[in-house]
UniProtKB/TrEMBL annotation:
Keywords assigned: Oxidoreductase
Coiled-coil zones: none
UniProt name for this protein: Short-chain dehydrogenase
The family this protein is said to belong to: Belongs to the short-chain dehydrogenases/reductases (SDR) family.
Domain Ketoreductase: start-end pairs: 7-177
PANTHER family listed in its UniProt record: SHORT CHAIN DEHYDROGENASE, SHORT-CHAIN DEHYDROGENASE_REDUCTASE FAMILY PROTEIN
Length: 271
């Protein structure tokens, strides 16, 4: 591929936020970009072709992958970005709600990856970028189930990369920090709230709103993802934004007791 024609990219969850910024950044960088959303929407003004895909549905996933191949002939880059949030104490969510969260955030990634791998294997070339989070590195009070999905993506991605590397395929992670996206858009609340958590849960939501307002722009994450997409020898992980880099350093190199103490302080929890 020339510098102006880098290949064909498929970006899930591209209707807004990080996904939309990523799709646009890849398009500017020379990719032919297909984005997905759960509901029909018009192609973007800057050349991103939008397709409908429900990542929780096997047929929908297979259909969108086949559609891209019919239109473009190949898929060089898959960006698994689609995801939803969940705010509440761990015990405040039913098993049904937990399964629904994992169905999008984890099994949605598995579905898209499984659908794209045979194509990339035939090409002897491909890259899969999975959107993780700093919450895939650290505990997250009142985001326990969401953090669990990101921890799962971390282990899945690193393991898969070792399995497919000799086939010309690489799997890498992008780990954003707190990003300025629509707070309410993909956030659900626990379906079995308990009075004992009412006050502290409200404080956790207030804190989340505050840090989102001062978080990184989605374009910072998008630029890091483009770097990960184009690297000749990609790293396993790419942190996006100052906070993400700090969290990764703290988690890797500082004592667990220090991490625990400062995590509670940051979340305004009693020592």
């Amino acid at each position: 591929m020339s510098g102006k024609e880098r290949g064909v990219a498929l970006v899930t969850g591209a209707s807004s936020g990080i996904g939309l910024a990523t799709a646009r950044a890849l398009r500017r960088n020379g990719y032919q970009v297909f984005g997905t959303s759960r509901k029909p929407m018009a192609d973007t003004s800057d050349g991103v072709t939008m397709l409908v895909c429900d990542v929780t549905d096997d047929r929908s996933v297979q259909s969108v992958v086949e559609d891209v191949v019919i239109r473009a002939g190949r898929i060089d880059l898959l960006v698994n970005n689609a995801g939803i949030g969940l705010l509440g104490g761990a015990e405040e969510s039913s098993a049904v709600q937990a399964k629904a969260l994992f169905d999008v955030n984890v099994f949605g990634v598995v579905r898209l990856t499984n659908a794209v791998l045979p194509i990339m294997r035939r090409q002897r070339k491909g890259r899969i970028i999975n959107m993780s989070s700093i919450l895939g590195l650290i505990p997250a009070p009142f985001n326990a189930l969401y953090a669990s999905t990101k921890h799962a993506i971390e282990g899945y991605s690193e393991s898969l990369d070792h399995e497919v590397r000799t086939q010309g395929i690489r799997v890498v992670l992008v780990e954003p920090g707190v990003t300025r996206t629509s707070f309410e858009e993909n956030l659900t609340r626990a379906d079995q709230p308990l009075p004992i958590y009412d006050t502290i849960r409200a404080d956790a939501e207030k804190l989340m709103r505050e840090i989102v307002e001062t978080g990184d722009a989605p374009e910072i994450v998008a630029d890091m993802l483009v770097k990960a997409a184009n690297a000749a020898s990609p790293k396993r992980r790419y942190t996006a934004g100052k906070m993400a880099g700090q969290v990764r350093f703290i988690r890797r190199f500082l004592p667990e007791s220090f991490v625990d103490k400062n995590l509670r302080k940051f979340n305004r929890l009693p020592a």
